[in-house]
Amino acid sequence: MKKYICDLCGYIYDPAEGDPDSGIKPGTAFEDIPNDWVCPLCGATKDAFSLVE
Fold it and tell me: Strands, E, within 1-53: which ranges?
C-alpha cells in the first residue's frame, strides 16, 4: 500500500500502521480514511498530503 506525507509537517501516513489514536485501523489505505481525518501532528486536512514516491 502507498504511503502519504503531510506537506506541512512531514508526518508519513503508513497504511500498515494506520492511526489507531484517531480510530484508523492498521491496513487502512489512505484513500479509505474518512475525509474529516486530520494529520495527528499538525491538524492538516487530507488534501495537504502527497504520495510518497
Answer: 4-6, 12-13, 49-51
